[in-house]
Each structure stands twice: as structure tokens, then as C-alpha cells.
Amino acid sequence: MTGGQTTEAGDHSRGTIDRGSEATGLRVRDAIRQSGLKQRKIASVIGIDETKLSKALSGRRRFTADELLGVATATGVTVRWLLGDESQVSALPPNPAAAAVSDDDANPRRTIAETAWTLFGRYGFDAVRIADIAAASGVSAPSIHYYFANKSRLFDAALDYSVKLAFDRQIAWLDDIADPAQRLESLLKLQSPLGRTERGEWSIWLQTWTRMALEGSALSNYPLSYERWSRTVQTTLEDGQRTGCFRGGDPRAMADELTSLLDGLGIKVLTGVMDTETFSRRLRSYLDRAIMHPTEPATATPADRLKESS
């Protein structure tokens, strides 16, 4: 996030992005064309019929946040690009290495990386073989080596995919939320390991932290991704301090503490040491003590709504 507020609030309760539907439709159409997928397939992936998709592509119907996220995931573009690169939410630019891949190579490379992401997240880097990824991707092992020099490079591509998923969710769901307290609530929920996809991302991130601790941070561009995530939290806190709903203090230090708490609690949930109810309770307690302005009604904190929605 940049810390600014959107000029068109939209209807977040329906998950609808309220802006330039015709321009967004044109970008979605271009993304579908470049992906080589049929509109019928895209409609099926995002859970709507072809008639609704056609209306959205022509600007007669707005894409919901979930639909934009589905299109971005299926076609390989970012939600930020679909929205015309006007998002208020911080996000990584497209991976330069991936952008250099030719159109003919883009789809197989992405399919292999996404398959590797699933297997690495479920079974771990050491347990997954190139042969396993080849079989699950429907390609040969030599084909994988054509796109990726070794398994470590393939893990890096899976990490890039994880980062893309996380930031695409933020942009699709948070960009039209002007209220800092509501934005922080949604941000923490989106980044917590409470859902199936989020748990897969956390598994990849946890393995990345382990590799970095053992091999050195120079082997991964993940620190840059984490810095962007931390800045997103920081600018949300700064917005809340300006509007008076968050306590005063050093927003950088507060963001470091909050993200560190979320990391620690998330690891406990991922490893089964803590259940999700305790996770929500611990997070609520911290937000009430350290983030929310003391005059804020205790029954209306973002953490309370976070617990109710989890």
C-alpha cells in the first residue's frame, strides 16, 4: 500500500472492484488471449458461466475480487496489471526472469512452477524429486531441465509464485478499503495460515527461511518481498494513526512487532502447536494492547472481526 486512500470506495462486502470495468475487461481479454486458454476454461476456473464472463469482458458487468484473482492466477498476470497498475497496495513488479520468457515457453514454465509449488508446499523440498514434478505436470524430466537448471531454481520459481499469490490477494481485496482499521483486519486475515492456499504459501515461506538460515540470504530475493509486506503493514498503521483509530508511536517499530508476532503465531498454527482459535485470541489481545487506540470500543476491534470471520 502507498498509504493513500482510493477515491472510489467500491462495495467490499460483495468483493467488487469499483473502477474502470471496461478497461479492466480489455486487460482481462488480453490476458486470456496471451495465455492461450479458451474463455470457456477461464469461466470454469473462476466459477461463473460464459455469459457473465462475456458481459464482464465487454464492461457490462464488473469483475468481483475473487474473479480477478482467479483470472490472474489462471493466466499468469498480476491483479495489479489487470487493474491498470493503479493499485494502492504494495506489490512486486513482474519477475524480470519470467518476463523474458517467450510466449511459447510461458505456459509450460508456469505450469511446472505451479505444480512444483503444490508439491513442495505439501511434501517439502527434500522429499520431492524432479521426476515427481514431471509426472504431476504431464511433461518429461528433460523438459523441466530445459526451463530450470536444477531443483533449487525450480524452488525459487515456486517462491515467486507464492509471492504473486499473496500480493494478488491483497490488491484484489484491499485496494478499495479506505478505512485503515478494516484494511488492517483484512490484511492480517489474508496473510494468516487459516486457509488451504495460505497454508501452502506458509509452507513455502517456512522452507525459504530455513534455506536462507542455512545457505545465506543472498540465495533468495525473498528479503525484498518481505520488506514490501512489512511496508504494507507500516503504511496501514500510519493511515490509522492519522485518522486516530490506532495508537501513536513509531510505525516502523510497530509494523516489525506485528509482523513478527504474526510470523510466530502462524508457524505455530502451521506446525500444529497452536489451533486457529488460540491464534485469533492471541492476535486480538495484542492488537487491543498495542495497536488500537484506547478510546476505540473493545467490541469493534479488527481482531474481533478477524476471529468471527476465521
How is this structure best described in words?
This protein is globular. Helix 1 packs parallel to helix 4 (65-75) and helix 14 packs antiparallel against helix 15. The model is unreliable at 1-19 and 90-105 (pLDDT under 50). 40% of the residues are buried. The chain is mainly alpha-helical and 310 residues long. The chain has 16 helices and no strands.
SSE inventory with pairings:
Layout: H1 21-35, H2 39-46, H3 50-57, H4 65-75, H5 79-82, H6 96-99, H7 103-123, H8 130-137, H9 141-147, H10 151-174, H11 180-190, H12 196-215, H13 222-243, H14 251-270, H15 276-291, H16 302-309
Helix content percent band:
55-70%
Structural class: mainly alpha
Proportion in β-strands = under 5%
The gyration radius over C-alpha positions equals 20 Å
Keywords:
310 residues, mainly alpha, 16 helices, 0% strand, disordered N terminus
Give a nutshell description of this structure.
By secondary structure, the protein is mostly helical.
